[in-house]
Design a protein that fits this description.
It is built from 12 helices and 14 strands. The protein is α+β, with helices and mostly antiparallel strands. The strands form 4 sheets. Strands 5-6-7-9-8 form a 5-stranded antiparallel beta sheet, with helices on one face. The longest helix has 23 residues. The structure holds adenosine-5'-diphosphate and magnesium ion (MG).
Amino acid sequence: MVVKALPERTNGTSPANSASVLLKQIESEPALTHARLVLLKVLADRSGLFLSLTDSNRLSVVNPVDGRSYSLPMTLFSEYSEGGVDWNEVDGVLASLDLQCYSKDAFVMGERIYKGNTSSIYHCQLGDKECAAKVFMVDELAPEKVASCMRELYLMSEICSPPDVQGIVKYLGYSVRGVHPRRVVILMDLADEPLTAVVSAFANRGLLLSSDVACLRTIFIDILQGLSYLHSSYVIHRDLKCANILVTSSASDAVVGSQLHAELADFGLAKKLSPYKEWANKPAGSTRWMAPEVTESGRATWRSDIWSFGMTLLEALTGQLPYHGVVVLDVPKTISLRILPSFKWIPAESELDVLQTLQETVLSCLQFDPLQRPTADELLRRLLQCD
Ligand SMILES: Nc1ncnc2c1ncn2[C@@H]1O[C@H](COP(=O)(O)OP(=O)(O)O)[C@@H](O)[C@H]1O
Ligand SMILES: [Mg+2]
């Protein structure tokens, strides 16, 4: 485990989050409990530091500001590996984040929209506002999942709040409810439907109308704006796919291209990097959308998000999952053989430059050499230019 400390940020970073305080905490820590480790990770993320696992026996902490390094035995983590979550400490972690916390009376839960393995999404009423609530039954989760729930909460609070950023679902606040069951609730703007629903409608019709193509262009322009913002903030999403894109129509009667907007959601695997370390070490993501370098070495960068973006656009333009004819367990092997997915575009009612640009965009993202992939900004310019 290597914990690297970067120069302290001066803008708005409180001393409690600074690199030196963090290093002192680690130095003086007799035994790191799980919640403590989560706290360190969250603080590390918050101060622009990072942690990564490279060695199974020692935890080395390097401070490039003064060049000092610390080396601690991994036995410090014994409590972590044995699991067990100390809820007082977790509450302390949440409190230390200084986020907008709503009391349980501030919002009313409505019907469930979606049920996943670790969380469910509900309609919810926050004052006058209808919103969505992502609910984690944290006392039923393994400690690592609790950690990732808290990281998702922290990341959303950091990156999903600016009002002027397009293409990212808006975070509204969080709440903790109950003891048994204990729930962590992330509140966010409510969208109409996931992009998978829009794409299924197109695929079932078997024909892309000009209005569908305009709608897809709008959606992917929004997503590229969101992605460009994430990448410029040293955040990689790591789970781009149609199911993690939310679509909302501002028109009440019909889905019209210009009135649609789309947002990137599900920051459960998102990772905050830094100018000093622009990659994540552990393989994570959804296999069919994962870049070859991630399935092979676990090394994810903004370039692997671009591969997944290409797969997401392919999914939208074909109405099929990437590598749809291959069982999911065999997908990594297929990718390692440098085989691209076979696909058939949904036919269009007429030849359109926009559609051709979207199709070419897919191919420019699906380059096995990550260095050949375009940036989100380049892709955005391309889609804005075609009309
Ligand atoms: N803000 C939201 N508004 C409307 N539906 C949402 C919202 N967030 C998520 N959903 C629905 O829930 C599904 C799963 O959400 P997600 O955050 O991706 O959960 P998971 O981490 O389990 O994948 C989405 O595909 C979408 O259908
Ligand atoms: Mg998801």
